[in-house]
Amino acid sequence: MVKTIFFGSSLYSNIVLKSLLSIKDIEVVAVVTKPDKPTGRLQAITANPVADFAKNHHLNLLQPVDFDPQFLSIYKNLSPDLVICVAYGPPFFTQEMIDIPTYKIVNIHPSPLPKYRGATPGPWQIINGEISSAVTFFQIDALPDHGPIISQIPFDIKSSWTSHDFYQHAFTLSSQHLDKILKSYIKNPTSIQIQDHSLKSYFPKFSKDTAKIDWSWPVYKIERFIRAMNPWPIAWTYILNQTGQKLTLKIFSASIENNQLQPNQVQIEGKKTTTWDQIKSYYRISQS
User: Fold this and answer.
1) Of 208, 283, 209, 207, which Cα lies nearest the Cα of 246?
2) CA–CA dist 186, 226 (Å, integer)
3) Which pLDDT tens digit goes with each residue over 230-261?
């Protein structure tokens, strides 16, 4: 049995974790995810999807704030042969942690590395109009998304996809190939390829502020941006009501008609979700 620790913290991490648990030669000795934290308006303490899944399936769950000496001691005592990481985020692995497992730490990243390194590869590939991508299995090293490639699985990007659709497809694809890729890698762990770092690209994270629509962009790029910001942080712009009051409008989806952007599902700050057609006679979009 290959003693394996799984690191992940997102809804998409669970797609791979479920598949990992079904591989007969893999023993998942621990699941590591982020601590429960306050969420929503009521700031209720909430577990992330990976913690929920681990609790519901009675897995050995660890939720360190950081990789302090106490956690490192637990990590070493588990004596992992392999570590799998899917959408875990910081803190980053130290070289000591990388060197402990026999087969190192394998990350699954939804881009054709070395292109689109970083935390937001899905949204940026949509914004930039990419029509194809890949899921990359690679060995983690000391630099972000920098390590040697184990395997890449190509796929096409559909023109209707949101970021959720992109990630759902990418990680489902990786889960379908997980058994085959891991067995091949464990059999021959030196059969890896150094990335061509001259081809690297990196794009920044998004925030609610940077989700503001830039109306100077071409209309087709704006439509892609709206899809890329869904499910988070959601694209937004300012609108003016009939008295000239400036309000914030979230745009969840849009279409292009006669080379003009037509918002579809929208939400004015403090109000319920509706369609732009239902309210457009009372508001106008401010493109400043």
Assistant:
1) 283
2) 41
3) 999 999 999 999 999 999 999 999 999 999 99
